[in-house]
Amino acid sequence: xxxxxxxxxxxxxxxxxxxxxxxxxxxxxxxxxxxxxxxxxxxxxxxxxxxxxxxxxxxxxxxxxxxxxxxxxxxxxxxxxxxxxxxxxxxxxxxxxxxxxxxxxxxxxxxxxxxxxxxxxxxxxxxxxxxxxxxxxxxxxxxxxxxxxxxxxxxxxxxxxxxxxxxxxxxxxxxxxxxxxxxxxxxxxxxxxxxxxxxxxxxxxxxxxxxxxxxxxxxxxxxxxxxxxxxxxxxxxxxxxxxxxxxxxxxxxxxxxxxxxxxxxxxxxxxxxxxxxxxxxxxxxxxxxxxxxxxxxxxxxxxxxxxxxxxxxxxxxxxxxxxxxxxxxxxxxxxxxxxxxxxxxxxxxxxxxxxxxxxxxxxxxxxxxxxxxxxxxxxxxxxxxxxxxxxxxxxxxxxxxxxxxxxxxxxxxxxxxx
Length: 418
What we know:
This protein is α/β, with parallel strands linked by helices. It is 35% helix and 17% strand.
């Protein structure tokens, strides 16, 4: 039987990531095998509007970032649905994308896999953050539910730190003469807003003064003193430091208006582990020595920066554009595949089975306080692979991924050839 020429391999992504290493490294290896690669940018204005032409593909590989804007995610879900209805093989389809873009879903998957995770609460406004803080132990992390690359995460060293930031954020909203979405509504302000409960966006608002009293009120573990704190240098300094982080505090509520408040766990030896899974098996792993978040926070205060801190391994130089390594790429990263316990390998594979994902990575650490059991905290559907040189091995992880893409295409279309 005469073989037909293989249809293009489609890579679904965002315009700003079209030249990212997780696209270009894969594209280079597919094209080296004689395969035509078609980039489909979900946010491109010239994306083919004819579904018949759009989906003339041998296989569609979803590489849309978990942190993509809501409009781009809706477009991605639509294209993936069309591809599924057309019978096109899909790598990392809609089910795992829905999990990837929701960090609370990460924790649900990890819990379903029987893994230990940090204590976490879902919050929709600052009043809920205050109520949730009563249920957790400081220090805490406040992070976007929808986000990625470690962006928008705020380290809260203490109850006072949280109160200072909350007061500063409310003051900023008051100065703009409007009630921001992260402020509690009048009905929930005095009750903590129902931490972790889903519901409709409230329409009733309250004054910034009332909100300030609510979000900055002492939690149950605090000692109540005078209702009016003396206007001394220490107080002004705390408020000033809180004001520098207003933008990052607001960013914590992310694109979907939700944030996670999570107990911070200091990693043993300052090490964070990442394990990549491909086609039901562990592909590789690295361990990176990271800067402790309390150290990052102190550096931000010293520099009067209002940016948030990063907990993503992209800070270790893995997730970079070609020729533009990150400033933090000198952090120590070493191969760790051979160091993984069998239980961790099995757990990583189980996580992606539950997600319905063909590939991705999961992150974990060992607690400096109780290192007996790994603590998992992040699931990534789009994850930049380390180089063969970094892994100190002959096999190229990117080539392994390209070979998997080609196998998916040929299983569905055995008469196709490059």
